[in-house]
Prior knowledge:
The complex is a heterodimer. By secondary structure, chain A is mostly helical. Chain A has helices at residues 2-6, 8-18, 27-35, 39-56, 58-61, 102-138, 140-154, 158-169, 173-199, 203-210, 215-251, 263-274, 280-307, and strands at residues 83-84, 90-91. Chain A is elongated and about 75 Å long. The model of chain A is unreliable at 1-16 (pLDDT under 50). The longest helix of chain B is centred in the last third of the chain and has 39 residues, at 230-268. Chain B contains 13 helices and 2 strands, in the order αααααααββαααααα.
Amino acid sequence: MSTVGAAAPEIAPVAVTAAAQQAIETPFRRVAREFASSKVALLGLAVLVTIVLLALLAPLIAPQNPYDLMQLDIMDGRLPPGSESMSGMTFWLGTDDQGRDMLSGILYGLRISLGVGVVSALVAALLGASLGLVAAYVGGRVESVIMRIVDLQLSFPSILVALMILAFLGKGVINVVLALIIVEWAVYARTARGTALVERRKEYIEAAECLAIPRRRILFRHLLPNCLPPLIVIATVQVARAIALEATLSFLGLGVPVTEPSLGLLIANGYQYMLSGKFWISFYPGIALLVTIVAINLVGDQLRDVLNPRSR
Amino acid sequence: MTGWLFRRVLQSLFVVLAMTVIVFVGVNVIGNPVDILIAPDADQIERERVIAALGLDKPLWEQYFAFLSAALHGDFGNSFVFSEPALQVILQRMPATLELAMAALLLAVVIGIPLGLYAGLRPNAWSAKAIMAGSILGFSLPTFWVGLLFIMIFSVQLGWLPSSGRGATRELFGLQWSFLTADGLAHLVLPALNLALFKISLVMRLVRASVREVLPQEYIKFARAKGLTETRVILVHVLKNIMIPVVTVIGLEFGSTIAFSVVTESIFAWPGMGKLIIDSINVLDRPMIVAYLILIVFLFVTINLIVDFLYTVLDPRVRLDQEG
């Protein structure tokens, strides 16, 4: 909220003329109103909120704790959706080879997938945006070194960079997050620099410089808030990309360990049973992954339209 | 132009060199080669003997130069699994990957350009909107899951196409190719389509955007005013002008297609170098990992260089920019 509010110097005049007759509209309200103008985006947001809630509340709502071995019965292994367990519980989405309820497995898997995606995107945003801002504001040799590294890294596909890092580090949740941060930071750095180059020529920065405000303060209190809208859009899309990449890496056996299965690993576990027609072990986690990614992308697309001053 | 080319080649060499340092440091400093190379039950004397034999007791920079000079001779050591030179094992698998990547790019061009052209010419038709919505799916669907769906539908349920391997191959130019036999071609369809899905969406959107940009131009109006048929206007005047970005993107995508074949090859058990590297990482076959990474970096830098060069040759505006 405060982030959008800080973008006021630029947006306020437009908002005032648009709503001149009525009460003055805050930038946040304007964004919310314009966001709501697309039914599809609202649906995406609703789905996304539901998914996040499901993931957060997984221990409370999941029919069983899929990693508590006491609750598992190997006799329930590979049951099709809708079948009943030995103890009378119904497996709505079937079970995997260990006799785990797939619905519970997916709810717990969502926690890991979302957690890895959000944490890596946030840390990468912080790191990349700072470096991009510094590059734009300081310029000179610092800028050319940072941007050379960004260009170099972006010339390689993300999966290759992630593969390389995980080949060095080995698998593990922390290592995957680390790999995703290294893959993603360059995108933020490039966006932040591009925006900051435009912003820093504006009068308010000049004014701040005339007032002899310390450079660091100008950078983070004046420049950063005004560069936020495009960064927010990028961050949304990057979370989806991070989740997809993590799932891919885990599917290949390079990502999260078996003890902390994300959706990608659940899909990988069911892969061997696919050929014998037991599709549900892979299929339903895949649907969960797909719905999550599409929902985030829908929200991101609409945010891009709403936050981009040129498209208004 | 020569000066530019020289600078660009020099830059590329520097990138490759920097990557050898990163790979070397990554494998030798972050991962500990001693733990991988020496059996866990070896005693202290045995450990020290192997460390000395492998040169791991020397200073790091000395090890690096030994590694670099061996690498320049194509020597990355023997694969632990295959007991053959690592580079040789990879190069043997390369034709399979190249075949898959080229088939995928061909599909992207053959399917993507006509669909993009159609969507660009009739932006308001519901069919064009459906095509664009489909392309969003192509971007969002994770490749590996689509691959699994393909297997589920076309191999398991319908039984139309095989789900793994290369099928029968036939020799051409001393290499084995799948597309020359009916069986091999059947094996190629699903993996190639899977790998192509993302590229089809990309090419389609690019072509659509370029067409929207070219259509309102004066020279298109002029061509129509001259009374040329619509077919000729589209096939010659429009298509010719959208080709520069399309060719560039397809060229650049070749590298990423090879990188992403890692996923497709693993699903369809396609015996290329992508599946090889995943297997190698899983069993910590260090020489294979190093050889693959260096080779693919080299490949990428070369592709980028060639695309940059072609771009300059194709588009006079870029050429003038660099000279001026």
